[in-house]
Amino acid sequence: MNKVLKADKIYSSPFRVSIGNLLFFVTTDPEQLKLALFGSKTVEKGSLFDFARPWIGSGLVTAPYLTWQVHRKLIQPTFGPTILKSFLEIFVAESVMVADQMECELNGPEFEVSNYFSRCTMGSLCKTVMGVKLDAYAGENNPYVKAFRKVTAGIVRRGFSPWIHPDFIFYRTKLGKDQQKYIKFMHDFTEKLISTKKKQLLERGNRESNEDAEDDRYNTATRREAFLDHIIKLSEHTKILTDEEIRDQVHTFMATGSLSTSDTIGFVMLMLASHPCVQEKVYEELCEIYGDGNGDAQLNVTQEAIARMTYLERVIKETLRLFPAVPLIVREVSEDLDIGGRSLPKGSTMVLNILGVQRSEKYWLDPLKFDPDRFLPENFAKQPQCSYIPFGGGPRNCIAQKYAMLLAKTLVATLLRRYVLTHDKIVQIKDIRIKFEVVLLPVEPITIGIKRRT
């Protein structure tokens, strides 16, 4: 990531990079980013995504455009406002569980936050979007998280190592063999998730309409139709989605949805712990909404309360500006493309440097300063379009961005009502070491301390 950021300061956009026989053009120019995100000649994801297909197949992230169009239209309703509102109860319960689990860290040394947040986001995603409980994967050192990290790191390493691009070479290396092992584990996980849901749906169909089993609070019989229910029904009744396509979508949402959200929340907590004045302003906003009492066992999180958390939302957006979950996006050029007075050849790939444009001094004043007020409406209106695109843009933007914001707000609000976040060794943003493993990660695990609010 450092090399990518430095190259952007040396060369004008788009600059050319070759990896083996693959040709890339890297850009941080908002107009060029806009053309790539919204243009008809850059709708495909590019050959590098072939390295991820053994893992997530043709899910929304990797699917060819025509397949993506059909699947996106089918899946979009499962992330509508009414369904998102119905998730709040589970978000609150999972957030309170995390706050309770953190009690053991109270007044102690700084601790790593990743395990806590990945448990919360995976638990939330299983119970809401998937409609099942899989508590066996909620403990420390979650094996799914480990497998995810290994696979994404392997994909990036392979991408930058052209000598192992060919499958017949890659799968004879230790990296390739390990990749197969971790992918099999994640596939087994999602197979279990799907079979659990199918069993629930079958049992529900055989029960009387007045069923009141405890598990129904997590399914859709009377409250909502979650993503997994919806696509299984499409598979069984309309044959629009095959069983393999269902698995691909589940792999995609489990991997990219839960873990990229937990990584973002980790960066949010680091920023709050490193900026006590910002943290206090968030707490004051929560007091305006909920009163002065601290340590509420369970906040009354409603859509109205979430909408009032405007400063907290600006904090999350500023964190995403500095630490976007996906710092680089690639798009294949399907026809010769005129861009910025230059012509990109058919078959080349555009690399959209999201991190670069969002930290660029060309488009942001004092870009490495943490300033949530950049996102006051009157300030953000002055920003060039596509200078802030943490969830991508255009038709292939992130389908779950509202879901992620809702979960992040609920978890952060719950923790800040109970705890003061501290960080002993505050590091300037420019010195926080980060790495690219498909998602953006800190080189050193994020640690914070907590004290009881009084």
Automatic annotation (TrEMBL):
Keywords: Endoplasmic reticulum, Heme, Iron, Membrane, Metal-binding, Microsome, Monooxygenase, Oxidoreductase. Pfam families: p450. It is found in: Endoplasmic reticulum membrane; Microsome membrane. Belongs to the cytochrome P450 family. Its cofactor is heme. The keyword Cell inner membrane does not apply. PANTHER family: CYTOCHROME P450 4C3-RELATED, CYTOCHROME P450 FAMILY 4. The gene is LOC107227729. May be involved in the metabolism of insect hormones and in the breakdown of synthetic insecticides. It is a peripheral membrane protein. This is Cytochrome P450 4C1. PROSITE patterns: CYTOCHROME_P450. The keyword Heme applies. Its main location: endoplasmic reticulum. Gene3D superfamilies: Cytochrome P450. InterPro entries: Cyt_P450, Cyt_P450_CS, Cyt_P450_E_grp-I, Cyt_P450_sf, Cytochrome_P450_Monoox.
